[in-house]
Amino acid sequence: MISVGIDAGAATTKVLLFQDGEIMGYRIASTAFDFVTAAGKMFEAILASCNIGKKEVGNVYATGYGRNSISFADKSISEITAHARGVSFLFPEVRGIIDVGGQDSKVIAIEDGKVVEFLMNDKCAAGTGKFLEYTAKALEVPINDLGELALASRHPAGITSMCTVFAESEVISLRARGITKEDIAAGLIAGIAQRVAVMAKRMGLKEDVAFVGGVAKNGGMRAALEKELGVTLYVPFEPQITGALGAAIAAQGNR
Amino acid sequence: MPSSLQSLDFFQDSYELRIAQLKEERGKGIKIVGTFCLYVPDEIIFAAGADRIVLCGGKADTISVAEQSLPRNICPLIKSSFGAVVDAYCGGNLACSHVPLVDVVVAEATCDGKKKMYEILPDYLPTYVLDLPQKPGSPEALDYFLSELRKFGKFMERLTGNVVSNDALKREIGSANETRRLLHRLFELRRRDPPPIRGSEVLRVMQKQFFLSPDQFRQGVSRLCDEMKHATPDTRTGPRIMISGCPMAAGNTKVADIIEQKGGVIVVEESCTGTRSFWDLVDEDADPWKALAERYLEIPCACMTPNDQRVARIVDLAKQYDVRGVVYYTLQFCHAYNIERLRVQKALKKEKIPLLAIESDYGDSDLEQIGIRVDAFMEMIA
């Protein structure tokens, strides 16, 4: 059976095609204002690239913040369930998930592929990709370089403000004091890693923890989080697609 | 969806009726007491020949008025209530029309936010504060609370010019117990699977408990129970949910509504607008003052320490009502209930009952964020 998962996230939209226990293809794009049309186009593009007709698709499941607006989806499920199923498919041994996305972060505890507890931070930009985006801008470095920069730091700067707006002004004052970009980047990343790690520790996540979401692509962030938690994190080959993957797996029907 | 229960209309239509009644009473010189909390015994107010209405605010409208005087980061119930009083006594039109009908507020020393708000309230309304011991388990605490109740009785006597006699008190205890027994009957019916009434409907009834006169309220609940006995049960088969935590004052049904939209079946509420208001009865055979003191100190509010009785009550209710999950509701910035969550969660975990914590104010900005949590929780316990 062929199924499709659509993760209409706040920052990016992901579409994934799944068939017979395999990922056939996926697409990732920035969430546009008209994200429903955009998701529809991604859906058609992926079908075309895999040479599959619309009629051959069994079910389409949507997840993410825009999940209830995807009119061509058969059903929607929460991101929590979607990530749990997607990550469990990739790493069956995993018992905890840390997802840091563009505008929220969440921590999920799983047992036998089933969610048993979760925590979300979606009220504050601190601890999300947005925080990195803003502070990278203040540092005048591309967001993708922030992690590498941080890894080169020898004396990470202490960033006291975890408010995204005020962290920006703190970065500027640190630069005025002559602190290097590397040390500031490391300070910023350590700050957000600490914030996310507190959520994971609250839930008692210890071993076999996966790190997913767009921010998991950031090597410096991954290293900082591993240091905070004292574990090696499982990171999928493409950390942004686990929600769409989980939705596609759920769309297969069997648990 | 259960077939709409017609006796619920009474509660919806009761507002104007009650306002007319209060106005008439005022015309006759009967004093109207405004209250904010279950710890203030109705029995003493009625025994003194006064009437009472609850002033707890559940609406966002008056919050900006309150924020002109109070800090922004305190609970929305305090802000909404205070804002309503300020607005009503400064000639505004935001507060509900019952607020200006109050002669005096009888407040209580519960949480810090309320205590400090009650210090500002006298600028607008005469305010009497009933003190409470914070460690209610000891004989000394009971003696102290008993003396506080007697003082409060004297205050009511001065206010009304009537004597609070033991006979009058016993009569009112009987009346209040009758209400409590009736509510037990209502909640007993909700143990059915599926229950014959929605949780949000019960909440709207409970929000009227201290607003209507005891007679009016009992009449409504009694009719409702009779109708429920023969009602077509709800055919939805969503997971049975218990709400536990802060009060949901009239106007605030946000979280209950979301839970039901997402398919949850709310069967019981451990809150001031739920079991806490009626679960324990007053001993009708004992000395009325002592019996009142004993019963009211049993109210399991998070301002008490250690609040073991609440933790035990929650676990007990979760089992009695056969719930699949507990939604722990905290008003934003309510530290007492927010901190107590950890103990509740641990106790429920032992019984393998999952808990979802939701902290929210009276605004609409987090509807989607609460929705996603409730969605995920429903999927988790399905």
Walk me through the structure:
The complex is a heterodimer of chains A (255) and B (382). Chain A is globular and about 60 Å long. Chain A starts with a strand and ends in a 5-residue tail after the last helix. Chain A is built from eight helices and nine strands. With 255 residues, chain A is α/β, with parallel strands linked by helices. Chain B has two domains: 8-163, Rossmann fold, CATH 3.40.50; 168-381, Rossmann fold. Helix content of chain B is 49%, strand content 11%. Chain B has helices at residues 8-27, 42-47, 63-66, 76-89, 112-120, 139-160, 166-189, 199-206, 214-230, 254-261, 288-297, 308-320, 335-350, 367-381; strands spanning 32-35, 51-54, 104-108, 127-130, 240-245, 265-270, 325-331, 355-360. In chain B, helix 6 crosses helix 11, helix 10 packs across helix 14 and helix 12 (308-320) crosses helix 13 (335-350). Chains A and B meet through helix 2 and strand 8 of A and helix 14 of B.
